[in-house]
TrEMBL record:
Function comment: Allows the formation of correctly charged Asn-tRNA(Asn) or Gln-tRNA(Gln) through the transamidation of misacylated Asp-tRNA(Asn) or Glu-tRNA(Gln) in organisms which lack either or both of asparaginyl-tRNA or glutaminyl-tRNA synthetases. The reaction takes place in the presence of glutamine and ATP through an activated phospho-Asp-tRNA(Asn) or phospho-Glu-tRNA(Gln).
Protein name: Aspartyl/glutamyl-tRNA(Asn/Gln) amidotransferase subunit B
Keywords, comma-separated and alphabetical: ATP-binding, Ligase, Nucleotide-binding, Protein biosynthesis, Transferase
EC number(s) per entry: 6.3.5.-
Family stated for the protein in its record: Belongs to the GatB/GatE family. GatB subfamily.
Signal peptide range: none
Domain Asn/Gln amidotransferase: 328-475
NCBIfam families: gatB, PRK05477.1-2, PRK05477.1-4
Keyword presence, Calcium: no
Residue runs in coiled coils: none
GO terms classed as biological process: glutaminyl-tRNAGln biosynthesis via transamidation; translation
Gene: gatB
Length: 479
């Protein structure tokens, strides 16, 4: 038996900080970045005699998340105390939900390698966040500002079989929550973080293996690395005759491995019971209808529109709707674009490359969408080719002018003069007989070398399509 005989089975628990102005059970601010322990009160510190009062906007946000992820909404629910002792939890219990979560039985569809996969959502429940431990080398400090910040926890079914599926799901889920307006999902601020429950089993088996849980992963790249390492660790352990232990682990990025934190608790270890200080949560069907009507067009609806109206592939459409800011920008640019498929290609390649890491923000290019449409139109009408278009886009990104002005100012117009190009092609072919012979023998790289020499002699401005056609004819004449 080898590693190839095993498959990974994963489920995710995603914790999302809601964008309410105040905490879940008190009036303290939820603003990020305040000095330590300046946004706390008797309630969120759990001082004797303090009573929590549920923030109604937290319930509304959670129900919107449930509607947006195809969940059923629990009409009569409650809140429970999850009992455990840890320094970042001043009450020694967390107010959460156990057997009656606000939302349950949902799903999200994702695109992976050209195929659609449906990931089940077991439940979405509300709870309070804990404080933050700060390790300074000499000891540990605690900032309770985050304690009591409202969270929703979104628990998936164990439907994941690869890091790519996890990445696609998290990006799709993050987009849905941003579209719904219930969280900014800034991973660098801890507003969107993920726990991965992972086990391995022999391919073809339906039994679940012993799982480990990796906590509070807040980067897409860290999540993928953590999954790959932990899967390899468990498989190696099983192949060597060992046994996987149910435990909680953390990802040590510096060491490039997961590290054991503690044995993994089961539900009964938390001694859940209904919180006696909080009333039941009752949601009417009228309220659900109202909250549903407040949701904007969601990613899947936009995706379907892009496929049917613009003729985009499912993959390109999925990429464009992964950010509400990008989708809005794309639709605005499409209004003035002669080739929307080309626009989509430019956005999913060059624009995404320039935007870089989208985990920290939900942003669009730093110039008006009409300017990107104008650039794409110049590529489409062959005023410039895609290679020059990348250069113009870079200038625009740095605060440059209209693409037409940049093209004229830097003399970037594409050369399509057949007589001029023919003479250059003939010169290149005549002075590179070895490359010509190699191409005739089937070496494609030799042809690309010839094209590259023509482009170099024209400072990159020659029409690539015409260069290719003329070279083919020139080489053909010499056969």
């Amino acid at each position: 038996m080898t590693a190839k005989d095993f498959e990974i089975v994963m489920g995710l628990e995603v914790h999302v900080e809601l964008n309410t102005e105040t905490k879940i059970f008190c009036g303290c601010s939820t603003a990020f970045g305040a000095p330590p322990n300046t946004q706390v009160c008797r309630v969120c510190l759990g001082l004797p005699g303090a009573l929590p009062v549920l923030n109604e906007k937290v319930v509304d946000a959670a129900v919107k998340a449930g509607i947006a992820t195809n969940c059923e909404i629990t009409l009569y629910g409650k809140q429970d105390r999850k009992n455990y002792f840890y320094p970042d939890l001043p009450k020694a219990y967390q107010i959460s939900q156990y057997d009656l979560p606000l939302c349950h039985g949902g799903y999200i569809d994702i695109e992976v390698r050209g195929e659609t996969r449906r990931i089940g959502i077991t439940r979405i429940h509300i709870e309070e966040d804990a404080g933050k431990l700060i390790h300074d080398g000499e000891g540990t400090l605690i900032d309770y500002n985050r304690g009591g910040v409202p969270l929703i926890e979104i628990v998936s079914e164990p439907d994941f079989r690869s890091p790519e599926e996890v990445g696609a799901y998290l990006r799709k889920l993050r987009a849905i929550l941003i579209y719904a307006g219930i969280s900014d999902c800034k991973m660098n601020e801890g507003a969107f973080r993920c726990d991965v429950n992972l086990s391995v089993r022999q391919r073809g088996s339906s039994a679940l293996g012993i799982r480990t849980e990796m906590k509070n992963l807040n980067s897409f790249s860290f999540i993928q690395k953590a999954i790959e390492h932990e899967a390899q660790r468990q498989i190696a352990l099983v192949l060597s005759g060992g046994k996987v232990v149910q435990e909680t682990r953390r990802w040590d990025q510096a060491a490039g491995k997961s590290v054991s934190m503690r044995t993994k608790e089961d539900a009964h270890d938390y001694r859940y019971f209904p919180d006696p200080d909080l009333m039941p949560i009752v949601i009417s069907t009228t309220k659900i209808s109202q909250l549903s009507s407040e949701l904007p067009q969601m990613p899947d609806a936009r995706k379907a529109h892009y496929i049917h109206h613009y003729g985009l592939s499912a993959y390109d459409a999925e990429q464009l709707v992964s950010s509400r800011a990008i989708a809005d920008y794309f639709e605005e640019a499409a209004k003035g674009c002669s080739n929307v498929k080309l626009l989509a290609n430019v956005m999913t390649t060059e624009v995404f490359r320039l935007l870089g890491d989208q985990e920290a923000s939900d942003s669009a290019p730093p110039f008006d969408a009409t300017l990107l449409a104008a650039l794409v139109n110049r590529i489409e009408d062959e005023t410039i080719h895609m290679g020059i278009g990348k250069k113009v886009l870079g200038v625009m990104w740095s605060g440059g002018d209209h693409p037409d002005a940049i093209i004229e100012a830097q003399d970037l117009r594409q050369i399509s003069d057949l007589i001029l190009l023919q003479s250059i092609v003939d010169e290149v072919a005549a002075s590179n007989l070895k490359a010509v012979t190699e191409y005739k023998e089937g070496k494609e790289k030799a042809f690309q070398s010839l094209v590259g020499q023509v482009m170099a002699r024209t400072k990159g401005k020659a029409n690539p399509r015409l260069v290719g056609e003329l070279l083919e004819k020139a080489i053909g004449k010499e056969r």
